[in-house]
Amino acid sequence: MSFVTAHVLDASLGTPAAGVHISLQHSDGVEIAQAVTNDDGRVPDLGPETLASGIYRITFGTGDYFASRNVETFYPSITIDFKVDAGQKHYHVPLLLSPFAYSTYRGS
Question: CATH code for 4-104?
Answer without folding.
Answer: 2.60.40.180
